[in-house]
Prior knowledge:
There is one protein chain. This protein is α/β, with parallel strands linked by helices. It is 39% helix and 16% strand. The chain has helices at residues 13-22, 53-58, 74-84, 121-140, 168-174, 194-204, 225-235, 248-254, 259-266, 275-280, 290-302, 312-331, and strands at 2-6, 26-31, 42-45, 65-68, 91-94, 144-149, 151-153, 179-182, 188-193, 214-217, 222-224, 243-246. The strands form three sheets. A seven-stranded parallel β-sheet has the order 3-2-1-4-5-6-10, with helices on both faces. Strands 7-9-11 form a three-stranded mixed β-sheet. A two-stranded parallel sheet has the order 8-12. The mean pLDDT is 96.
Amino acid sequence: MKILFIGGTGNLSLACAEYLASQGHEISILNRGKSKIETPFEQIIADRNQPGALKKALQDRHFDVIADFICFDAQQAETAFEACRGRCAQYIFISTTVVYAKPHQKLPVTEQSPTGNNFSAYGRDKEAAENFLFSKYADDGFPITIVRPSHTYSERWLPNVVSSLGYTLAARLEQGKPIFVHDDGQGLWTLTHVRDFAVGFAGLCGNTRSIGQVYQITSDMVLTWNQIMRETAWALHIEEPEILTIPSEFICRIRPDMNGKLFGDKACAGIFDCAKLKKLVPDFDCRISFRQGIRESVAWFKADPARQTVDPEADQIFDQVCQAWKEQKSDN
Length: 332
């Protein structure tokens, strides 16, 4: 198949492109050309947010599948529809499990679980994009497939509640600085490695039975946030990390910008049922444990000191919340 990735160098999309290429498919990627990640794939340079740019870039092309990893709201979905209709046999929109209403009414979460996230603008925007695209499927037969990943990580990510991209969490642990998890740290969470995700995603590509449908792609392996942080520390050979357990309400009072990340996502149990996907894609079977995946991530960062970048904003969030919590505890 000829497959176009809109994006193509991100956490999810690169792994999916590489996996599909290994299966013999012809891969192209469309992005602004600003990524430092080099790939062997054909690259189409265009800024989808510039009026007419996406449509112009695709006007003389046709693909079996167009997979859009960087569509975040209804306006971008409309731009994609105008550019991609008639140019592909299938358009796959990468949405998110953050579209679901929080807190969950029932676990595990399925594709039929209620949507409408009152805490996350990101989730509401993704849902609006879904709704627009489904309207075009109903009205015009636009060949849409919706994919909803949850917290999916690659070697470039160290999962945590603040910001998973980069080396910030590891740097703090190595320097003996405190980190935090929300509430008592016993909240349940699902982490999916991108290589496992890619198998499920590939099974949807070119599969006509997936058109007009929604599929979750997540692992079945559930951890607590305490386990996630301790496995990360152990991967860094740190036996006794300072992990503070802090109520979500307190975290969001100190940093209101954490409200969507917590109450709209990570403070709610993340347990998902992927039976619908497994029925369609029997090869989908998540095999990479977090213990294995996080050690691969640490090894990737350690292989090149230039990769060990710290995000000043994420570091500041950790500092502010941890300091405020310690001050409150000392006052009491």
